Automatic annotation (TrEMBL):
Cofactor: [3Fe-4S] cluster; [2Fe-2S] cluster; [4Fe-4S] cluster
Name of the encoding gene: sdhB
All copies of domain 4Fe-4S ferredoxin-type, residue ranges: 146-174
Name of the protein described by the UniProt record: succinate dehydrogenase
Gene3D superfamilies assigned: 3.10.20.30, Alpha-helical ferredoxin (1.10.1060.10)
Record family assignment: Belongs to the succinate dehydrogenase/fumarate reductase iron-sulfur protein family.
EC primary class: oxidoreductase
Organism: Bacillus carboniphilus
EC numbers, comma separated: 1.3.5.1
Keywords associated with the record: 2Fe-2S, 3Fe-4S, 4Fe-4S, Iron, Iron-sulfur, Metal-binding, Oxidoreductase, Tricarboxylic acid cycle
């Protein structure tokens, strides 16, 4: 019976950015349809470990709880994923929770994703507008183009693809798959296209496309199924064209 069952979780904890990580095990009562977030909330409600010792509540990030915001990313049983959609019934126990190692740890499972956000700023991953007033409807996109652009727009900056990529680490300044895919998305937008050459030249620089090792871990791990490797392949073509344009000093589209 469910009232006699428990869920065992081993959590890799860290008191602050500079302290050493350690493991702590918890057991909570089982109930149907539990996800990892529900387990963490139960531990926060009653922060007592499996030894019966009182401890500090576990820290982690969360927001939407429906796999939209990307805030609750962590490594669950060795795989980076969203903890809000990680169901206990589909996980082997003890469930091991770890922070994503690509990013600095703030505390416990809470990480600093500034590296990814700084990369998005670097590639100007937005649509520039002139002023804050109502500009009216913008230029229309062909339906076929809009459909694949929508797939790229599903990115929730969760950081899972950066965690899965072997080329994104503390010894590399590779911006990673998500920012690269956003370059393709905003370059395809009728208004965003005005900064296309600037974005392409940015990813042609250090830390850009050349650092991709084509392991394809990113597309396999993306919780939204975004065709990241397709975007990277398309950007390789676009940067080659941009190189020719730079060499010949042409401002015309090819």
């Amino acid at each position: 019976m469910s009232e006699n069952k428990t869920v065992k979780l081993t959590i890799v904890r860290q008191d602050n950015t500079n302290s050493k990580p350690y493991e702590e095990t918890f057991e909570i009562p089982y109930r149907p349809n539990l996800n990892v977030i529900s387990c963490l909330m139960e531990i926060r409600r009653n922060p007592v470990n499996a030894k019966g010792e009182e401890t500090t509540p576990v820290t982690w990030d969360m927001n939407c709880l429906e796999e939209v915001c990307g805030a609750c990313s962590m490594v669950i049983n060795g795989k980076p994923m969203q903890s809000c959609t990680a169901l206990v019934d589909k996980l082997s126990q003890p469930i091991k929770l770890e922070p994503m190692k690509t990013f600095p740890v703030i505390r416990d499972l809470q990480i600093d994703r500034s590296r990814m956000f700084d990369s998005l700023k670097k590639v100007k991953a937005w649509i520039p507008i002139d002023g804050t007033y109502d500009l009216g409807p913008g230029p229309r996109m062909p339906e076929k183009k809009r459909q694949w652009a929508y797939e790229l727009s599903k990115c929730m900056t969760c950081g899972v693809c950066l965690e899965a990529c072997p080329n994104v680490n503390s010894k590399s300044n590779f911006i990673g798959p998500a920012p690269l895919s956003q370059v393709r998305l905003f370059n395809a937008h009728p208004t965003g296209e005005m900064n296309k050459s600037e974005r392409l030249e940015t990813i042609m620089d250090e830390g850009g496309l050349a650092n991709c090792g084509n392991s394809q871990n990113c597309v396999q791990s993306c919780p939204k199924g975004i065709p990241l490797t397709t975007s990277i392949a398309a950007l390789n073509r676009d940067t080659s064209i941009q190189s020719f344009k730079n060499f010949f000093g042409s401002d015309k589209s090819i």
